[in-house]
Amino acid sequence: MPSRVYLDWNATTPLRPEVRAAMLAAWDLIGNPSSVHAEGREARRLVEDARAALAAAVGGLPRNVIFTSAGTEANGLALSPGLRGPSGGPMERLLVSAVEHASVLAGGRFAADRVGQIRVTRSGVIDLGDLEAQLRDGPPALVSIMAANNETGALQPVAEAARLIHAAGGLLHVDAIQALGKTPFNINEVGADLATFSAHKIGGPKGVGALVVTEGLTGLEPVLRGGGQELSRRAGTENVAGIAGFGAAVKAALQTLPEDTGRIATLRNRLENGIRSIAGATVFSEEVERLPNTVLFTAPGLKAETAVIGFDLEGVAVSSGSACSSGKVQPSHVLSAMGYDPAVAQGAVRLSLGWSTEPEDINRALEAWRKLGNTLLRA
């Protein structure tokens, strides 16, 4: 039986060999990274090496990298009303784009009545005019905009948004979880005040995330209190093996980024062309700049749940969009925000590629789609 084809890289990625090796070595260490003896210092060295690797990759400073249990926790830590803007005043409200991850849409620690949404265009990018109007129409705001959408792959105009936000006395948080390792990302170049990342999206282990803040940012309030870990910004003994794996994943992903980007984009384009040729399929956000690895598509009458099962039975792992809904296939809130009706939002299927995706994998996926298009849509 042929091996299965994995095309759900935006949900999670395979563990890189370098990461596995780094984690195995870390598991042999017995020291607590907060201990001052030799065993503790060795564990601390692994944590600090990973901290330095992530900081260097995204343009930050090691002392401004805070490790967390996941990207969701990192987002929750970032969305803090205590943050102080350029004038020294607190962020009195939160603005988020309508296509954010669920952990951002939840509003972090802001009260529900202090959270507003920024409209997006039919292409799935933020409406800068709406952002500017909302910034002008209220007190200083923390604004959260993802660098790249997890469902459509659309890249957001983060740098342009940052200029508007800072001119209005606000701060910008960027969820860069899908961007890291797939497209160049530097917090200074885009103007982010805070940015979040997740290890398992770049070939690292599940259960490790990070928040990177800019130098001089004040007012960040810990979610977990107790110990003095992470410079008293996140209590709890660090996950040494997971963090070591995160560092190894960052180094590996950045080393092969230029080569991977071009090769994966070529495969993605061939996949899209094949998808469009069957059953009148359309690809979302194709008219804007996107991640090189992501395809979100639908076809008239397609039901995502049936399609995902159909692909799975053909040996191809795909998804209906975000993988953060407890395994449920639900209508895409991203497509709803883009103005598509519920019937369309219920029929979107996402295929996402990665560094080990091969041309034969694309062939298998297109063969599966031909079968599904001839059965599901013409029955």
Can you walk through the features of this model?
- This protein is α/β, with parallel strands linked by helices.
- The protein has 2 domains: about 130 residues, Aspartate Aminotransferase, domain 1, CATH 3.90.1150; about 240 residues, Type I PLP-dependent aspartate aminotransferase-like (Major domain) (Aspartate Aminotransferase, domain 2), CATH 3.40.640.10.
- The protein is built from 13 helices and 12 strands.
- A 7-stranded mixed sheet has the order 2-8-7-6-5-3-4, sandwiched between helices. A 3-stranded antiparallel sheet has the order 9-10-12.
- Helix 1 packs antiparallel against helix 9, helix 5 packs parallel to helix 6 and helix 9 packs across helix 13.
- The longest helix is centred in the last third of the chain and has 37 residues.
- It is globular, with a radius of gyration of 21 Å.
- The two termini are about 30 Å apart.
- The mean pLDDT is about 95.
How do you describe this structure in short?
The chain has helices at 17-27, 38-58, 71-78, 102-105, 128-136, 158-167, 187-190, 229-232, 240-276, 304-313, 333-337, 342-345, 359-375, and strands at residues 5-6, 65-68, 93-97, 115-118, 141-146, 171-175, 194-198, 209-213, 282-283, 294-298, 316-317, 349-352. With 379 residues, the protein is α/β, with parallel strands linked by helices.
